[in-house]
Amino acid sequence: MLKGVSIVLVALTVALWLAQFFLPAHGIGVATGLVIYLVAWWIVLFTILPLGVRGQHEDHEVVAGTEPGAPVDPGLKRKAWLTTVVASIVWLLIFAVVEFSLIDVNSLPFPR
């Protein structure tokens, strides 16, 4: 069930991003959407990477010639998928805020 929901979230993100090719030029553009997604993906990746990592010294199975703190099983495939799903959620939130003008970006106090 959870895998199906995550696939739908990622598919929705891709569909909305691709729809930007055909929508009028307001809100998030194609390039902006891609950049926002990639930045979100990397930030989420670095927050998810340390989750659930067990070092070799914790399992008392240190391989000769390696760092004792090196992970036994980093689970990179699972973490890459989780990163993709969380980054999709972040992108969808940003997309909704910009596309539906929930927060007027022009009214934010940026220094000029």
TrEMBL record:
<keyword id="KW-1133">Transmembrane helix</keyword>
<feature type="transmembrane region" description="Helical">
    <location>
        <begin position="80"/>
        <end position="103"/>
    </location>
</feature>
<keyword id="KW-0812">Transmembrane</keyword>
<dbReference type="InterPro" id="IPR009935">
    <property type="entry name" value="DUF1467"/>
</dbReference>
<keyword id="KW-0472">Membrane</keyword>
<protein>
    <submittedName>
        <fullName>DUF1467 family protein</fullName>
    </submittedName>
</protein>
<feature type="transmembrane region" description="Helical">
    <location>
        <begin position="34"/>
        <end position="53"/>
    </location>
</feature>
<dbReference type="Pfam" id="PF07330">
    <property type="entry name" value="DUF1467"/>
</dbReference>
